[in-house]
Here is the input.
Amino acid sequence: MKISVIGTGYVGLVTGACLADFGMEVIGVDKDEAKIGALRAGRIPIYEPGLENLLKKNEQEGRLSFSTDIPAAIQGSTAVFIAVGTPPLPDGSTDLTFIRQVAGSIAENLNGYKVIVTKSTVPIGTGQLISSIVRAGAGRDGEFAVVSNPEFLREGSAIEDFLRPDRVVIGTGDPHALRIMLDIYSPLRNAGVPFVTTDVESAELIKYASNSFLATKISFINEMAELCEALGADVEVVAKGMGLDARIGNQFLHPGPGFGGSCFPKDTRAVASIARASGGRLRIVEAVLEVNDHTLRRMLSKLETAFGSLAGATAAVLGLSFKPETDDVRESPAVAIVRALVERGCRVRAYDPAAMEACRPLLPEVVFCVNPYEAATGADGLVIVTEWNQFRKLQFEALRDVMRRPLIVDLRNLYKPQEVADAGLRYVSVGRATVEPAAPDSAGDPLARRAVKEAP
Ligand code: UGA
Here is the structure.
């Protein structure tokens, strides 16, 4: 079957590559010529494990190609997957300009029955909107069906999430379109993946409800972390004790600086705004957003307290992307933290395995370093903001040797507090007690002894 995927951003590329891998003949289209030129030359614009290989393999095997010719792609396809951006507007609602444009193009190029599939996260009612644009533009009815097929990919594990999903959601009122969709996804059906088939509106809402619920878990544990700090409890044990209850589950209960990225902040704001526009309110979701803002502010107070004073201090920041295994810095808590540190007069030396290029224009005051130890050189404290695996095995001795003061502020709880203290560093984490270095070294108090290096 011939499929076009409109939009070669994150969702579009992963969807296109994986559908081609299912055996479909896929054409990825975008109006951005530079992007398509780069893709044709084998350069992919995002960092996502496994994506480059999958794109290459399917291109070489002739199932995947890229083009800027949107009309030809639409005319040549039975199913048109829409994966264009749906950015937020200042009031939290969603900008549907690109969706409207694509719907208009489909209307102009409707040369036979087509299944129009929304992959982008779109407000409830967008399926209807697309239908009305296509119907009005094409001047006739019955030759298309709109399907909502939300994606549940996580950046950093997107290929795995597409090929081994917890479920596939298909929303449509058209039995023929449903059959086509089930055919497209037959490799997953054969693998026993559960399918939820429903109407368009319910499918659209499943996406927002899922992201909002996951965000709720995160804000919930972040509030518990704050309470743990006040009461002397350990949030990691609390999360473990809760998560073992199968009704709660152990995922998305990791405390930290609050959720970021291109999805949770945007989708929670959007669904709250959708509810208000419908005359209601999502009080829990609104509270989740408030707690998320509060959590970031709380991390800054934590840094202020840990450093003593931020003005004139040097912080080594590890991790800039919003999560590991990606170079995406959209709504990254790390970027917000670095900006706030700089505003408070703190010098920042930073290291991230993938996101430094993306950060250079955003954070001009920052000194970007080649590894954690260079970042730590001369620093008054090392701040772990994103939990890249390579930050889980830092050599404490080497850090102590280069830092001005032996302090780690770990906003992701990567270490057992005692292990850091035993290595002679003060350790501040989230929802757990701060531990002081176990034993001063020969030079006396380890917190005072490091006047050895200034930041270069
Ligand atoms: C999220 C969802 O997990 C996907 O299912 C969904 O498809 C995607 O949004 C989307 O709507 O496109 P993603 O934004 O890639 O995926 O990243 P997550 O792994 O969900 O993390 C989001 C944020 O929550 C990150 O800032 C992360 O650090 C934070 N988080 C996550 C926590 O602070 N604690 C946790 O326990 C889990």
Remarks:
- The chain has 19 helices and 14 strands.
- The longest strand covers residues 2-6.
- Residues 200-456 form a domain with the Rossmann fold fold (CATH 3.40.50.720).
- Residues 442-453 have pLDDT under 50 and may be disordered.
